[in-house]
Amino acid sequence: MIPAFLLKHWGSLAIVAGIIALTSAVYLKGRSDEASNAQQKFRDAIFDQLKERNVTDEDISNMPDPDLCRAIGGQLRPDGRCI
């Protein structure tokens, strides 16, 4: 047995339900896009840091001991220690 109100206003209720469903879908899509953009920015930042580190690692690997010691704020002793 269906209440008389539903029989009388089923079209209006269907329209309201459709609007709610559409609004929810748009909202969820926006949230998904926002999360995807944040993840991409995070990946880009990590990629840039790794590229920069690779360049730094190459520079340090090619640096002579006295220059490396000075670069970290030390002084190279005659016995080869950096203090």
Describe the model:
The N and C termini lie far apart (91 Å). The radius of gyration is 32 Å and the shape is rod-shaped. It is mainly alpha-helical and 83 residues long. It has one domain (4-71). The model has no long low-confidence stretch (mean pLDDT 85). Helices cover 78% and strands 0% of the residues. It has helices at 4-61, 65-71.
Overall structural class, as computed from helix and strand content, comes to: mainly alpha
**Shape from CA axes?**
rod-shaped
Count of discrete structural domains: 1
Count of distinct strands: 0
Largest sheet: none
The residue-averaged pLDDT reads 85
Distance between the termini: 91 Å
Keywords:
mainly alpha, 83 residues, single chain, 78% helix, 2 helices
Question: Which secondary structure elements does this structure contain, and how are they paired or packed?
Answer:
Elements: H1 4-61, H2 65-71
